[in-house]
Amino acid sequence: MLYIDDDEGLRRLVARAMARRGYEVATAGDGASGVAMARERRFDLIAIDHYMPGLDGLETLAQVQALPDPPPVVYVTGSDEAPVAIAALKSGAVDYVVKAVGDDFFDLLAQSFDAALEKVRLAAANAAIERELREANARLETLLREVDHRVANSLQLVSAFVNMQAMATADEGARRALADTQHRIEAVAAVHRALYTADSADSVALDGYLATLVEGLGQSYGAERRVTGVTLDAEPVTVAADRAVSIGIIVTELVSNAVKYAYRERDPGPVCVSLAREADGGILVRVSDEGCGLPPDGASEGTGLGMRVVQAMARSLRGTFGSDTPPSGTCFSLRFAG
Predict the structure, then answer these.
(1) Strand-strand pairing, 73-77 and 95-98
(2) How far is residue 308's CA from residue 310's CA, in Å, rounded to a whole number?
(3) For an engineered disulfide with 57, which of 50, 103, 235, 323 has Cβ 3.0 to 4.6 Å away?
């Protein structure tokens, strides 16, 4: 440690007393000399007296604090002056000690040194732990992105196999069932692709994800000329990855149903998907068309598997799912907490 004080006799007493308590002490007779020593040599701790000619204690403290990676400083005053102590602590001192007669001063000085060094040790340990946690989180995020990348690639491969099987199948019903399966796989794969490229490893920008999903559905169904297009009107919303999967499957099923049944007996029309955050913080997803509307009895057309999937996904979101029939067409709505 370094003890800076203009009182030569006290410097010697401090050096001997601190040596008996296990400290190796260097001394300086004024602030300028002390700062110069601190520049040339690394000290674990510095004690600075307040009243000194030339640079006083606060000026010396300021210059020590300006050093690269400065050591902790204990401020020493000749009287119990609260404004001086407060000024020193505000300037960066970790503690202050009032000079006293006899061993009481040295005991207080040793206690202050011990506390200051323990504080530095704890700060270094906390910094090391935080650094290790940041590094571990970075490794985990890298691993999760690699997993998402591999899962997305694997799902893409499965989707390609399903598509090949559909093309090789003569039965029209089987081909449509396989096409529906392929769209469900694509909905899940799109989430993993979004996670792989996102800043967060566990959340998805739902508006961006739905934009990718809707674009793919539009390209897939546009070739069948059953609808004029699939569009999206979305506000910025971020959700957890598992929720994005459920929402993506719901949108996929509802768009698929609209393509199959909305314009069956009329000219093709649009299918619209919307995403909005409501005033209470909840999230609203709608899929609507301008087609023939629901059957009078409300019964599902086809096998009903798609609607069962939708209802199961809505329950997983703890949301509410329903439909209404506007002047023309059908509108399905999903509401869940944001």
Answers:
(1) parallel
(2) 5
(3) 50
Single pTM value for the model:
0.55
What angle do the packed helices 241-257 and 206-222 form, to 10 degrees? Answer: 30
Distance CA(336)–CA(285), nearest Å, equals: 9
Cβ burial, residue 28 (10 Å; 0-12/13-18/19+):
buried
The predicted-structure confidence for 264-279, as pLDDT tens digits, reads as follows 777 888 999 999 999 9
Give SS3 for 55.
coil
Q: Which candidate, 118, 138, 115, places its Cα nearest to that of 126?
A: 118
Residues 240-293: tens digit of each pLDDT? 988 998 999 999 999 988 888 888 777 888 999 999 999 999 999 999 999 888
CA-closest candidate to residue 221, choices 182, 189, 265: 182
Q: Domains for the chain: give ranges and CATH numbers.
A: 2-99 (3.40.50.2300), 202-338 (3.30.565.10)
Nearest-angstrom CA–CA distance, 195 and 45: 48
